[in-house]
Specification:
This protein is α+β, with helices and mostly antiparallel strands and 313 residues long. The protein folds into 3 domains: 62 residues, no CATH class; 147 residues, Tetrahydropterin Synthase, Chain A (2-Layer Sandwich), CATH 3.30.479; 69 residues, no CATH class. Helices cover 54% and strands 19% of the residues. The radius of gyration is 54 Å and the shape is rod-shaped.
């Protein structure tokens, strides 16, 4: 191998290394800040494609161009009306000025830490400046019936003037005022969850149980009252029906007895033979109901029954 060939090979290798070190690719989802000896050089590169830099002495720093998430830790915060609650929040943000972002925050980890300070602080300030109802509710609700006569659900709710949505918007605006010189922008901020601290939760649950128990007792009381009215009406209706039935039965029996007496009288008064036959039939009826084959009686010779028995003999 000649000396000239070795020089060509070495030159090619050096050229490839220089090209590899100087060329870099920026993706659609990325933006780049070039630094030289740790200090930014020129403007940030926000367009995608093949780019070049000075090899070895310049370095590429890549940052996300897409929306980023921030998830806060639950914080214990007192409201204006001195109710201690846990507030859990989250936000979406983006890097709008990579150069300023790199100078002030260096990387995403530094941005997350700074955002936590800003958003947690603003959340604490705005929650502490409003009553619990303002933080929890967004709109005023129309009272609804609980099912208990004269009682409405929500009739004791306080009216709100601002509400949760506006408080979230105010926190977002206040946070963006503090992030303008950081190269980032908070796109959205929401209160994810609100809950009482454990010490207060038990008191709230006990109060809820007492309230539900009171309503249940009121239901029971009203039910017992309605049951008493219904049972009383039932007894009155039953007595009325029984009295009417007894009256009608007595009336029917009276009419039947009167009709029977009328028939007997008519039969008795028709003729002597009829009277004799009637007397005979009545005697036979008496005989049938009074005597059997083992009965022994002593009769007067003047008895009508003796007369018929004698004739039978």
């Amino acid at each position: 191998m000649t000396k000239k060939l070795i020089i060509v090979i070495l030159s090619s290798i050096v050229a490839l290394i220089l090209i590899f070190e100087s060329a870099y690719i920026v993706k659609e989802t990325e933006q780049v800040v070039i630094t030289q000896f740790g200090k930014p050089v020129g403007q940030a590169i926000t367009t995608s494609g093949l780019k070049f830099k000075t090899p070895f002495i310049q370095k590429t720093n890549y940052f996300e161009k897409r929306f980023l998430a921030w998830d806060g830790d639950p914080n214990q915060i007192p409201t204006k009306d001195k109710k201690y609650i846990f507030v859990d929040t989250y936000a979406r943000w983006e890097i709008i000025d990579p150069l300023k972002f790199f100078i002030r925050l260096t990387n995403e980890r530094g941005a997350i830490s700074r955002l936590a300070d800003i958003l947690d602080g603003e959340t604490r300030d705005f929650v502490a400046g409003h009553n619990l109802e303002e933080v929890v509710r967004t709109t005023n609700r129309t009272p609804q019936s609980s099912g208990v006569i004269g009682e409405m659900i929500g009739d004791t709710l306080l009216s709100i003037e601002i509400g949760r949505e506006k408080i979230q918007q105010m926190i977002l605006e206040a946070a963006n005022k503090e992030t303008t010189d950081l190269g980032i922008q908070v796109l959205d901020f929401k209160i994810k969850r609100i809950n009482y601290v454990p010490e207060v939760q038990e008191q709230v649950y006990n109060r809820m149980i007492s309230e539900r128990t009171r309503i249940a007792e009121k239901f029971r009381s009203e039910g017992m009252g309605e049951a008493s009215v219904t049972n009383g009406q039932k007894e009155r209706d039953l007595q009325t029906i029984q009295s009417e039935a007894f009256r009608q039965s007595e009336e029917i029996m009276g009419k039947a007895d009167a009709k029977a007496a009328e028939i007997y009288a008519a039969a008795y008064n028709r003729s002597a033979m009829s009277r004799e036959l009637y007397a005979f039939l009545k005697s036979m009826e008496t005989f049938e109901k009074t005597f059997d084959e083992n009965t022994q009686v002593i009769l007067s010779t003047k008895s009508e029954l003796f007369k018929y028995l004698k004739n039978m003999k």
